[in-house]
Write a sequence for this structure.
């Protein structure tokens, strides 16, 4: 079954609108895990618009009591991310090429341009025993290069698929994502996915075989406003469980 990692950035974004500490990022993690989430994701940014370094440390301490739950820290290794990662040593570090002022991640790595700069970061993370995933576009052809650099996994950037699904014309985008997943797997990489996956499009996306993990934040937290956070997590898990059962049939 594809694992669900709940991205808590938007919980922190709402918390940061006031100075009274609610909603609690730690409580959101507790509710998500209680509902069955297999991972927690955060993406600390230099401007600390949502997740702050203190949140990362608090979550790392909390998750020590849940060894089966993976802690995934995302971000740009050239913007102070590695200092945080060194301190807490998460299960996985997903390297993302977003600029300091980016509203959200909107493209994957060009490893021909950035591979040499990335190589020392990947080497250090692997030496620390941290799984490394690279955020990649589905039209990339650089899967072998990602593996050669030392990546364990790639995370497919799924916004193009989500946009196509919303237009009612997801077939070509799904086929492209599926081809990317196959090529990455053939290169020896595990495949994760994320960005704008939601309750409406996740079932179709999960027809792609071998997706190990989906990281979902914005849509899941939006659904939680209507359903409640535990119910929202369970709704996403139900899709993943059903998809796994159908794939095994």
């Amino acid at each position: 079954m594809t694992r669900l990692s709940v991205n808590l950035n938007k919980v922190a974004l709402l918390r940061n609108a006031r100075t009274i500490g609610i909603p609690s990022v730690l409580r959101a993690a507790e509710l998500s895990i209680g509902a069955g989430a297999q991972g927690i994701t955060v993406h600390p940014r230099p401007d600390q618009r949502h997740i702050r370094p203190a949140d990362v440390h608090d979550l790392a301490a909390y998750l020590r009591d849940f060894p089966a739950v993976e802690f995934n820290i995302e971000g740009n290794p050239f913007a102070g991310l590695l200092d945080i990662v060194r301190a807490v040593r998460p299960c996985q570090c997903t390297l993302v090429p977003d600029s300091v002022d980016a509203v959200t991640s909107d493209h994957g790595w060009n490893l021909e341009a950035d591979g040499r700069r990335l190589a020392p970061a990947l080497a250090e993370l692997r030496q620390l025993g941290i799984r490394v995933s690279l955020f990649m576009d589905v039209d990339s052809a650089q899967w072998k290069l990602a593996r050669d650099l030392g990546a364990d996994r790639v995370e497919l950037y799924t916004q193009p698929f989500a946009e196509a699904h919303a237009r009612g014309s997801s077939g070509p985008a799904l086929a492209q994502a599926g081809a990317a997943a196959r090529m990455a797997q053939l290169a020896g990489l595990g495949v994760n996915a994320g960005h704008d996956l939601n309750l409406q499009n996740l079932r179709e996306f999960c027809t792609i075989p071998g997706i190990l993990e989906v990281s979902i934040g914005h849509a899941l937290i939006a659904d939680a406003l209507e359903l409640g956070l535990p119910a929202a997590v369970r709704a996403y898990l139900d899709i993943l469980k059903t998809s796994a059962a159908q794939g095994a049939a």
